[in-house]
Amino acid sequence: MKCLYVYNPVSGKGQAEKKRHYIVKKLRARFGNVDVRATREAGELKRLAADACGKYDVLVFAGGDGSFNEAVSGLAERENRPVLGYIPTGTVNDIARSTGIARNIRGAVKNIVSGWAYPLDVMKVNDGYAMYVACSGGLTGCSYKAEQSVKKKIGKFAYAVEVLKHELVFEDYPVTFIGDEVTVDTHAVMVLIMNGRSVASMPVNAGGLLDDGEAEIVIVCQNPRRKEPKVHRHFRYFFSAIRVFVRGFRRLRKSKRVYYTYKGKSFSVKVSPDVAWNLDGELGQNGDISVRVLRRHVRLIMPTPKKKRSCLSADAAIAEKPDVSLTCAE
Q: Which of 277, 244, 278 is nearest to 258 (CA)?
């Protein structure tokens, strides 16, 4: 069995570099043939993942949510995609939180050598991909604007610093949402499209399923009020956005005047050309997007989900242990 291990030496606090010998030793004990690559620039993991298709049985990578996005983006258009093994070493690690993968190196490696491979959904956003979130508007730029040096020193609190510096004041923008047999024209301060359970380390989509072929959408609808002071408007916008993270998708479905919620397989969102989209914590494209959920498109080695809190559908494909086969039955 052939395995490629790729790691980002600066992700998080450089733990993958420090634990390199331990990780490679464990992977070789499990898979035998393990090639190792360290990424040096953005986009390198995407290229390595694409090249791994048809050459490797398993692609193990260490990094943050952005690294996961690169790996998926490299695999998505290819055939003979290897199974993914993930070692979360990023700042927030939302994908690990959603899937139950341990957010420490020893636990994550243990999962890879003894876990099961499950097929998970991927969102195709125009010509790009997102594993767990695509979002725009207020509070959504802090993850890619925060400096790496600050994240390395204070972790996810770097995002809070970025919010305080640049994200407290944000404006509404026109949004047209087009889904199956529904069109919504509104003004919004934030749009959140989720395929995972955790966003910004918070359980925004608790109970969401990662293999049901659908994404959950929240549009925070807000308009300026007549003669409303700017300070009051900005505070109103800010707290309406914050409530998304505090209350979560299910509870917001009851607040129809401010929060429009939707769940679907494919849809489009039309916005101004200057509106930027955040894909899995990284800066994506600007303007209009079309989203299609690719059901059970990639396979990830995960701990066996607990029945009452499973992130998988009741009809989830039966996964097999890596020492038997890494091919999941559909």
A: 244
Q: By C-alpha distance, which of 170, 25, 196, 4 is closest to 99?
A: 196
Distances in Å between the alpha carbon of 312 and those of 55, 119, 196, 267?
Answer: 29, 9, 11, 22
**Tokens representing residue 307 in the block:** 């029945």
Kind of pairing, strands 33-38 and 58-63? unpaired
pLDDT at 158: 47
Q: What is the mean pLDDT of the chain?
A: 86
- Give Cα separations from 216 to 191, 212, 252 (angstroms): 11, 11, 12
Residue with tokens 């398993």: 58
Angle, CA of 125, 38 and 5, to the nearest 5° = 75
| Predicted local confidence at residue 159, as pLDDT | 47
> Sign of the C-alpha dihedral, residues 52, 53, 54, 58?
positive
Distance separating alpha carbons of residues 86 and 83, to the nearest angstrom: 10
> Is the pTM for the entire model greater than 0.85?
yes
Mean pLDDT along residues 80-85: 96
